[in-house]
Amino acid sequence: MSELQLKLSVLPVEPGCYLMKNSDGEIIYVGKAKNLRSRVRSYFTGAHDEKTMRLVQDIVDFDFIVTQSEIESLLLENTLIKKHYPRYNILLKDDKSYPFIKITKEKHPKLVVTRTVKPKSGKYFGPYPNAYSAHETKKLLDRIYPLRKCNVMPDKLCLYYHIGQCLGPCVFNVSDEQNQEMIDGITNFLNGETDGVMKELEDKMQAAAKELEFEKAKEYRDLMGHIENTMLKQNMLTSDMTARDCFGYAVDNGWMSVSVLFIRSGKLIEKKAEMFPMNDDVEEEFFRFIMHFYDLNSNLMPKEIHIPKEFNAALLDEALPATVKTPLRGAKREMVALASKNAKIAAENKFEMIARDEARTIKAIETLGDLMNIETPRRIEAFDNSNIQGADPVSVMVSFIDGKPSKKDYRKYKIRTVQGPDDYASMAEAVRRRYTRVLKEGLPLPDLIIVDGAVGHMNTVKDVLLNELSLDIPVAGLAKDDKHSTAELLYGDPAEIVTMKKNSQSFYLLQRIQDEVHRFAISFHRNTRRKTSIVSQLDNIDGVGPTRKRKLLSKFGSIKRMKEKNVTDFTDIGIPKNVAENIVRKLSEQP
Asked: Which residue range or ranges hold the UVR domain (predicted)?
């Protein structure tokens, strides 16, 4: 099972948005879902049209943000598309944005519905998911709060004055106090304080119905419905334009998961989540993460930071150039709760993936044992050699426990007894040194030894184990094809190919082991050659013996860097002046 399949298997059954990524980590598609699990999985099952098939072929990873409702995911989807411009979101990307209701910043302000936000030009409310309701609410507010309607001030009263929807500032003196009173009323209304107006409309509707004026009663009822739709509470948006980050957390199995929601211009634009092992109490770890987060991302510093109420915000408030709060009610508290919900789901997903991955690898080694007719190889140790025409020969050993690399048990061996290129003798020396030490120190023996090679390498290792160390440990060989890829597993006496499917988890495990031991051998050999090259160029310099060679190597790392230094650079690390002069002179003479 691939990493992508594992992530698909633990998706939450929650509403939200998902972000599909290609091999470069680029977001190529943003979508919304009532049920993230079923929606995202649907891309990888069943038949699709040509466009979707091209999208699916480019997907190598995905991320998601959980929301509280479908309407939140709708608004968040639009925000994310406008932020990332994914190439597969052609229709939505080019579509209109959601509308705002705006009070213009003028001597005699107007109330307008707009899709363009210019914060300095007025006060904005929204955006609103239902454009029709936004316009209808604006019409209602026009009836209640008679601000001017015309774009250019006329020289005579217009129809709006005569129907009571304008105070006529073109002719009459309308004071700043009158305008401010109407602005305050609209602001309260659009911030959700609609009880008074709703009660008035309810009374008018009942009165109209009692007088059998059903058309008028229906008009009042419809206006109330429009108000409810437009004022629908949804956490993805806030009524102000303050830049803020909302942090939430979850603790599970000794790990902390932290999620941060970025809110800019009243909209949730992005989520980041991190998981790390805890070495301190919850508050210390949480605060340490936030401090480190802004240390690495200082350009992201918002005006406000919101954190859960159980933490002492004053500590962070003093340490950061932002106002740190613990909101106790309303949409801001709910946003912090949503951040914690995302953190909790991230932790649950991580451990579910780990559990499934462990089950998968345990099954792989159990199957490998069955195929080879040996006990389940819980501990596997693999050997490989590396040299160039016999120069600087090395061998390495890597250890896999329960199908996972155990890097603390890796070992490196500089070959001491072999002259010239002799792969078999080099491997014999490494195996001899490894298991002599294991027996001497009472360390655990492996259940299976794998050598990077074929029958000759296998027989060499068996000879050392049986005839020199009296150890009876299964030994297998991994042979490669002409493309230098894992081709087959050899085992038995005489050695035979172990039949297994190339797409099985057992074969994937063998590939990982062979790739890892080869990587480790090449890395060790390159490092050894580099050090040998440096030491050899320092051999003929008066005053530079083994101790000073090690000191120079530790400090400067390479001959190239030493050639860039002057006498003072060497004397500063304790090299005598005359020796430093010798070093600078000799290195300058070398090509």
From this structure: 195-230
